[in-house]
Write a structure and sequence with these properties.
The protein has 13 helices and nine strands. By secondary structure, the chain is of the alpha/beta class. Strands 4, 5, 6, 7, 8 and 9 form a six-stranded mixed beta sheet that branches.
């Protein structure tokens, strides 16, 4: 646009005006001659909308080695008991001597408890399974079904099963370096009435437990776990899970959902030499408040969102891990007491890790050296309940 008076192109717009029975006019102002003039408003040309052709994008699929997968499924139950017996053989048998009926070795009792969770049967129906394992020389004594339930209520089994979960993940320490953190609830078979909750003095409802786990994104092996009450918060468990995993694994990446978004969690991953990919909440700001990493990752999240999402997408593997546990081993706890439910939850996770080892042995051809893994666990954790290999 040029000025109507001096033909200068140094013209700016100064609003519009609409007179009676006329079209809307655009007001221009010339910076050279300092005059205003009116011209018809220029509208952008509107092109007709073209019909969009939607092309169905190809769905990304992951190849499956079906021959080895089928073989692993067929041999799973036979290898499961062999591998479980070998894992239990590293447990310290510290049964104190006392008079009376001799106690069943703790190794065989843990074997029986894990088998019960794997078979998903009652303790009475499990008796026949243990009888067959005795014929296969996996155990020397078939305990009474009430004895199995009694050991589920023993809190001494909690640290032992926790160490066994870490121990069962060590054969894959050379494969996993990216991890994901999340939590999931395991519901109880019991139901609490509202009046019991409303008027009870302790006001505790034991409807479900929550398992906080960190798993590898390649093999879905769980490297560290903590069982809490169902209403426990997720974010405070994050640093300890990462720290326990970093004792034995190289941690290069850790991803989690928005529930874990905090400066403390970002710094916990950086302390073990890894990178953290946790999305920021809507009300989050880039203010560092003592954490330069938080400020850096916030701007990376805002300016390179697609690249951030590519790393964060690996978090979906922890959802797959919980789905595997609940589909293969059940998502409901059958025990009644709180301690027995914690033991049952840990036994389910141990079963899941053993199944991951079996499938990786067929699909990846990994040869396990449990003796060296036990030695590594014992050298790092001096309070371990396992003997050194």
């Amino acid at each position: 646009m040029e000025c109507r008076y001096c033909k200068s192109e140094n013209v700016i717009k100064r609003g519009t005006i609409k007179l009676k029975n006329s079209k809307e006019k655009q007001i221009y102002f010339c910076k050279d001659c300092k005059k205003r003039f009116v011209a018809e408003k220029e509208y952008e040309r509107v092109f007709p909308i073209e019909h969009k052709v939607y092309v169905k994008s190809e769905r990304k699929t992951y190849p499956q080695d079906w021959p080895n997968y089928n073989e692993a499924q067929k041999q799973e139950k036979l290898i499961f008991t062999d591998l479980l017996k070998e894992l239990c053989s590293f447990i310290k048998d510290e049964t104190p001597p006392y008079t009376g009926r001799p106690a069943v070795p703790i190794r065989q009792m843990i074997f029986a408890c894990v088998i019960k969770c794997y078979e998903r049967v009652s303790s009475r129906r499990e008796y026949s399974e243990l009888k067959m394992e005795q014929e296969r020389d996996k155990i020397s004594i078939v305990p009474h079904f009430n004895t199995v339930i009694k050991y589920f209520n023993d809190p001494k089994l909690i640290p032992i099963l926790t160490d066994l979960i870490t121990f069962s993940a060590l054969p894959l320490r050379g494969v996993e370096d990216t991890f994901a953190v999340d939590s999931s609830g395991l519901s109880s078979a019991l139901y609490s009435r509202w009046f019991d909750y409303r008027f009870n003095n302790d006001r505790k409802v034991r409807n479900w437990l929550k398992i906080h786990a960190i798993c590898g994104t390649k093999t879905n092996i769980i490297t560290a776990i903590k069982v809490t009450a169902g209403k426990a918060a997720d974010s405070p468990q994050f640093p300890q899970l990462v720290k326990n995993t970093a004792k034995f694994f190289k941690v290069s990446e850790v991803s989690a959902d928005k529930g874990y978004s905090s400066r403390y969690n970002y710094e916990a991953v950086a302390a073990v030499g890894g990178e953290c990919y946790i999305p920021f909440k809507k009300n989050s700001t880039g203010t560092s408040r003592g954490s330069v990493l938080w400020h850096k990752m916030y701007h990376y999240f805002m300016l390179n969102h697609e690249e951030f999402e590519a790393y964060y997408h690996k978090r979906s593997n922890v959802e797959s891990t919980f789905s595997m546990i609940k589909r293969n081993l059940g998502g409901r706890l059958m025990m009644k007491k709180e301690v027995s439910q914690v033991v049952e939850s840990l036994a389910k996770v141990l079963c899941h890790n053993i199944l991951c080892l079996i499938h990786e042995s067929f699909e990846s051809g990994i040869i396990f050296d449990l003796a060296s893994c036990a030695h590594l666990l014992g050298s790092v954790n001096t309070n371990s309940t396992l003997i050194k290999g």
